[in-house]
């Protein structure tokens, strides 16, 4: 099976490496030549343009946002060039409406386009231990099953196109709400003399336990990585994903007041907590 992979960022690179390690013939496309060269040293073929991916059976996309997904599929012609029966897995966190629209356009060309966002982080991606949230044609679990098995320990089909994207946004909202709560709770506990490390240990045994608390420091590391690689503030999950929740809810005429508040206050809190000044306090 020939697999194309577009986007070799923090999550895309380890996903592509995992596919190579599992024996897939991988051809990768990224705007950063250094990243493409690094993956080539692991055994990948390097694509120069979307047209180089036309003969792929499955193409995975791990690009920053909706506009980048649409650029590669539509503006750059990938969707038009893929053969009937091929599959596109959109691993990016995108709006459900974008997923629906692209699935419809793919269906008209005989190409299955599935929203397939992932969760778990780079370390789990390297181990093939991601969660994949799929929306669209359920046959994708079979047609792209070998790829999904290589990448994920938990790949779940959730419903029609957009259901996977919406579930990923639900995951992000739950995670980021916990992050905001911990920022405020730790500030309160520290003000009254408790140490952050000890508070986190105690919370880990209580009803306030969460993935965020168990992996405290994950977001600080992520900020440093984003700063080093030049990821814009607007594309970082504590900003972009919360705004996507708000936009998706608005399109569905749903109220998400918590997401609205978080989108206003959390981005600054995360960036400031990870700053050298904060670490030196």
TrEMBL record:
Active-site residues from the entry: 168
InterPro entries the record matches: 6-PGluconate_DH-like_C_sf, 6PGD_dom2, 6PGDH_NADP-bd, HIBADH-like_NADP-bd, HIBADH-related, NAD(P)-bd_dom_sf
Ranges for domain 6-phosphogluconate dehydrogenase NADP-binding: 2-159
Keywords: NAD, Oxidoreductase
GO function terms (MF aspect): NAD binding; NADP binding; oxidoreductase activity
Pfam family, one: NAD_binding_2
Name recorded for this polypeptide: Beta-hydroxyacid dehydrogenase, 3-hydroxyisobutyrate dehydrogenase
UniProt lineage: Bacteria, Bacillati, Actinomycetota, Actinomycetes, Micrococcales
């Amino acid at each position: 099976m020939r697999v194309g992979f577009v986007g070799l960022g923090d999550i895309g690179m380890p996903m592509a490496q995992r596919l190579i390690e599992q024996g897939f013939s991988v051809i990768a496309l990224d705007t950063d030549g250094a990243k493409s060269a690094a993956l080539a040293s692991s055994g990948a073929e390097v694509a120069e343009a979307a047209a180089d991916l036309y003969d792929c059976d499955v193409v995975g996309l791990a690009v920053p946002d909706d506009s980048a997904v649409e650029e590669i599929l539509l503006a750059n012609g990938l969707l038009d060039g893929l053969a009937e029966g091929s599959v596109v897995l959109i691993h990016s966190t995108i709006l459900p409406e974008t997923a629906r629209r692209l699935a419809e356009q793919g269906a008209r060309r005989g190409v299955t386009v599935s929203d397939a966002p992932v969760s778990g982080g780079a370390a789990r991606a390297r181990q093939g231990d991601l969660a994949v949230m799929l929306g669209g044609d359920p046959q994708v679990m079979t047609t792209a099953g070998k790829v999904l098995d290589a990448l994920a320990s938990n790949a779940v089909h959730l419903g029609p196109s957009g259901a996977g994207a919406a579930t990923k946004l639900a995951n992000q909202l739950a995670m980021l709400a916990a992050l905001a709560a911990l920022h405020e709770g730790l500030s309160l506990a520290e003000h009254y003399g408790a140490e952050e490390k000890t508070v986190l240990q105690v919370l880990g045994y209580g009803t306030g336990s969460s993935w965020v608390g168990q992996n405290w420091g994950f977001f600080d590391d992520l900020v440093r990585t984003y700063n080093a690689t030049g990821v814009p503030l607007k594309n970082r999950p504590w900003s972009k994903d919360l705004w996507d929740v708000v936009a998706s809810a608005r399109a569905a005429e749903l109220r998400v007041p918590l997401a609205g508040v978080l989108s206003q206050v959390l981005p600054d809190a995360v960036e400031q907590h990870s700053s050298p000044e904060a670490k030196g306090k």
